[in-house]
């Protein structure tokens, strides 16, 4: 009996060593590239440093300056507007596409691949293509609008009124496929008996969508809403390639402002303070979502 226990104990230790060996590269990467930089950024937010000289502790001075910084307020408002535009539309269109593809239409694999393909394409490449599409003089969108009699089509990326909407369109187009795949997986768990019962009661497709599909997908919607919100607050690549924060400051979102402050103005402490504010905003909104999900998510 003792011999069997010792053998089992040795086998357990051996399995643990093997498991930790496989986990070690990922854990090292996490600590080196995520955990330690986050901790360093937190302490850096209370300092003033240009990357070369002496690090000076300034306490809450960076946060006081942020409260009075008009540029920071503009980037914060732009980020909120971008989130309010892009997240609901992205999730709604992803659900609609997923429901349509779940009906068993012909060539479903081709359609599913076509919708998902933009997500696996590099954001920079996507942004460059959309730059050509939005071109005010040679782009196909304005060419079509002019052909149907619209004399002054929007400037899209060159117009302060349209630039943020234009970036949102690219963001939505790029991300629909990812959330569509998640919703498709969620739809596989919705019992067909619910739709059959609704058919017997005479319910139409719209009633079934809002009374069956949405409630049954509520856990998936909750998950995707958190992911999409975080993703929208972190948007940078599309802004950097499409508009560089312009025209004016119309697309100068928080992450673009953070990168610009750190790597062009070399104000690492100030940029770290902005990053900490961004983290706290996402944390608070995520907490509110977790508290609110108790009232509408059905498990």
From TrEMBL:
TM stretches of this protein: 20-44, 80-101, 113-133, 162-185, 268-290
Membrane topology according to the record: Multi-pass membrane protein
Protein's cellular compartments: Cell membrane
PROSITE patterns found in the cross-reference section: ABC_TM1
Domain of life: Bacteria
Keywords in alphabetical order: Cell membrane, Membrane, Transmembrane, Transmembrane helix, Transport
Pfam families: BPD_transp_1
Domain ABC transmembrane type-1: 76-289
Family stated for the protein in its record: Belongs to the binding-protein-dependent transport system permease family.
Protein name in UniProt: Sugar ABC transporter permease
Organism: Chengkuizengella axinellae
